[in-house]
Design brief:
globular, alpha+beta, 35% helix, 3 helices, 6 strands, six-stranded antiparallel β-sheet
């Protein structure tokens, strides 16, 4: 077989071929993994909703995208309205996020019909290793900065003690605490904006 002459054309052909093959492989991998990732994300969300609402047997009656203006910018929140097995409205789980020390901090917060915090979980964070885990525990019932059980009031948002509030900050991480509380306050604002009597189209949370 005749050896290919070293030329610009040959190099271009080789590079294009490699790019096409690589692109095809990446597309194939993405196609193979996309569905399992989507299913896993949906399962994690549905488990999270049950966790923050404190009810195992519940239904999500509607999922709504809410747009609020936060610090002059439009921000999207997802409100999952829920009801118990008897069809009684029990509140909603709200997806919210804010900027922490190293990036976005995304939380899921459960509220009852009166606006009381039933529970929360941290869905995603980019904080320093350890801080995200602390945020997921610090504000729980047995945590030092417990917010579970508090009835929210739009005129009295949750504020860290260093800023004049009554929430204890995560040790050595006031910025993460502020970000977490901002996400919870914004979640409640999105929830309060909804018509809690308009839940329709029940879908079981499995």
């Amino acid at each position: 077989m005749k050896k290919l002459e070293s030329s610009l054309l040959n190099m271009v052909v080789v590079l294009v071929s490699v790019a096409v093959i690589t692109g095809g492989l990446l597309a194939w991998v993405n196609n193979v993994t996309e569905e399992p990732i989507r299913i896993q994300d949906e399962l994690a969300l549905s488990n999270g909703i049950k966790e923050v609402m404190g009810v195992e047997n519940l239904k999500v009656t509607s999922t709504e995208d809410v747009v609020n203006t936060v610090n002059g910018k439009e921000q999207h929140f997802v409100v999952h309205k829920t009801e118990d097995a008897e069809g009684n409205f029990i509140g909603a789980a709200v997806e919210s996020m804010s900027m922490g020390f190293s990036g976005e901090l995304k939380v899921l917060v459960g509220f009852d019909a009166e606006g009381k915090i039933l529970g929360y979980t941290v869905l995603q964070h980019s904080e320093t290793p350890g801080l995200g885990a602390k945020a997921d525990k610090w504000f729980q019932k047995d945590g030092k900065g417990c917010i579970v059980g508090r009835k929210m009031d739009a005129s009295k948002p949750l504020v860290v003690n260093k800023d004049g509030g009554d929430i204890d900050a995560i040790t050595a991480s006031t910025i993460t605490t502020r970000a977490f509380l901002a996400a919870v306050n914004q979640a409640f604002a999105a929830y309060a904006k909804q018509d809690i009597d308009g839940a329709t189209g029940a879908t079981s949370v499995k």
